[in-house]
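quick one, 290 residues, struct below
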Amino acid sequence: MFSGCGVAIVTPYKNGEIDFDAFGNLIKFHLANDTQALIVLGTTGESATQGCGERDELIRFAVDKVGRKIPVIVGSGFNCTSKSIKHTKKAEELGADGILLVSPYYNKATQKGLIEHYTKIANSTTLPVILYNVPARTGVNIEPETVASLAEVENIIALKEAGGDISQVLKTRGLVPKSFKIYSGNDDQVLPIYSCGGSGLISVSANIIPSQMQKICQKFEEGDIKESLKLLLKYNRLMSLLFIEVNPIPVKAALNLMGVIENEIRLPLTIMENANVIELKEEMQKLNII
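---
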């Protein structure tokens, strides 16, 4: 679907409602700054607190604004298989280019359950599907053998890996077909995952530094690994600060400091603690982001 850096885009709010003016400006920002894919309604987009009508509006709006210039990939994974199928079909109907499916959370499915869950959803759509492994949030790890089994499903084409275990990534790479893509789900692990045969990154940091994150990926893909590492090291502290509180609290604070969105987030998440905002602001000033 893409190589390089895709953004896990935030959902901006104003007075409790989705701020579509700000969302449109963010999309223009990404189209102008080399972002390779737009991932809507992921963790960073606060998908857990979006109503069905809001989801549909966001997808429709994003598809229209992007105008097929880059892929629009929609998070449609839930811990209920039938609900995931419903929202996957709706995303396809609304013009999405692909689907991102987080592993079912809270239920703690077995590996067999994961295979059946993902297979049923993939079989409900013609869109390409990206599996999303983030055990710190879901409580379940998608094992390499499970990924390999799911890679046999025709339209399951990729994995977003945010488990943090590079040894697992390497094992997965050895079990799946060469055509199967692995994207880093952790900004600071993009180079190790590239080194394990990865294809790029689905990034939180790209919300505020899209061209820089794409350049990190591009330099690695061009074989200039030293320059790629130099850039990663330059922005590594910023990446850490964007996770000093639970995502997307810090990245929304950063975008607010840039003057592009209101500093609003939905409960049970709350806005960033002031001491952390000060630290984030200092780093952004140091990097000439603000």
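The first strand starts at residue 4 and ends at 8.
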